[in-house]
Write a structure and sequence with these properties.
The protein is of the alpha/beta class. It is built from 14 helices and five strands. Helix 2 packs across helix 5, helix 9 packs parallel to helix 13 and helix 10 runs parallel beside helix 11. The termini are far apart. The model has no long low-confidence stretch (mean pLDDT about 90).
Length: about 290
């Protein structure tokens, strides 16, 4: 993943160690200098050690500082062409400002997610979900909306999904999982305790664990075997909740299309059957 250097730093900043944060803050303030400097020179400028820069790179899931520099350079080039940033929602602002700010935030959240979403992890997640006997979906409150979107799509393909949107439901589902099953755990923060506890029980039963969380170090991502990340960098919490949901729904769409592609003819036939069945049911009710 040689991209998204600046975005990765912003996303993971609060999960970094104090010294890593010091280096990260310097890079965010001087991205062009970070690209031009050697690791030794940058360490001196940021008043940290070379080892700190290496650890920072690894915390951001890069192989080393050289790869992080390439990612930063990529972001610098992109931001020079497209300087759009997250926009605050203005109270009592105009409707045109509302259209611009919300739409811009959603678009940027999706673009930033592409920088922290690893293609190899997506491939592994699709394969795991496709091979699973049963897919358990864990998500609380707003995350349950994202999970339920996946459930609706997967059921139309004929896949067996068990949704757990409460603590009791998650525990019951996790207790009955096997090594043939998979869990898709969705959490905006990656810190939802009830989801983490259900994942622990699912792992004891051999189920494979997939997480969809914000980028960075968080308990759910650390516990899962496959990590899918979305962007969450917004100034305003209300905008954050909206833009992050859109970004996660985009990841769900990616998983869905990937699943369709794994067995295209069979899945297209299943989609047609469900489409006809729903149409028939609605027609019957209206008559």
């Amino acid at each position: 993943m040689v991209k998204g250097g600046l975005i990765s730093i912003r996303e993971a900043f609060h999960s970094l160690t104090p010294m890593e944060q010091q280096a990260a803050r310097f890079i965010l303030d001087h991205p062009e200098l970070a690209v031009q400097c050697s690791i030794q020179k940058l360490a001196e400028q940021a008043a940290v050690s070379k080892a700190t820069l290496i650890r920072l790179s690894q915390s951001l899931k890069y192989k080393g500082f050289k790869e992080l520099k390439i990612g930063i350079a990529s972001d610098v080039a992109i931001e020079q062409k497209d300087p759009n940033v997250y926009q605050q929602f203005q109270v009592k602002g105009s409707t045109s400002d509302l259209l611009e700010s919300i739409s811009n935030n959603n678009i940027k959240s999706i673009k930033d997610t592409l920088s922290v979403l690893d293609a190899e992890a997506v491939e592994q997640a699709i394969n795991t979900l496709f091979r699973a006997r049963k897919i358990a979906l864990f998500g609380i409150e707003s995350s349950s909306v994202v999970a339920d979107d996946f459930r609706h799509k997967a059921v139309r393909l004929g896949l067996w999904c068990e949704p757990g949107y409460s603590e009791d439901a998650q525990t019951i589902i996790a207790a009955n999982l096997t090594a043939e099953d998979a869990v898709l755990a969705i959490s905006y923060t990656g810190q939802t305790q009830t989801v983490l506890e259900a994942m622990e029980l699912a792992r004891q039963n051999g189920a494979k664990l997939i997480s969809l969380t914000q980028f960075g170090v968080n308990p759910i991502a650390q516990f899962a075997e496959i990590n899918l990340f979305s962007s969450t960098v917004e100034k305003d919490f209300r905008n954050g909740a909206m833009a992050s949901r859109i970004a996660q729904l985009n990841v769900i769409d990616i998983l869905y299309v990937g699943l369709v592609d794994r067995n295209y003819d069979v899945h297209i036939e299943a989609l047609e059957r469900t489409k006809k069945a729903v149409h028939h049911a609605r027609t019957r009710k209206s008559n």
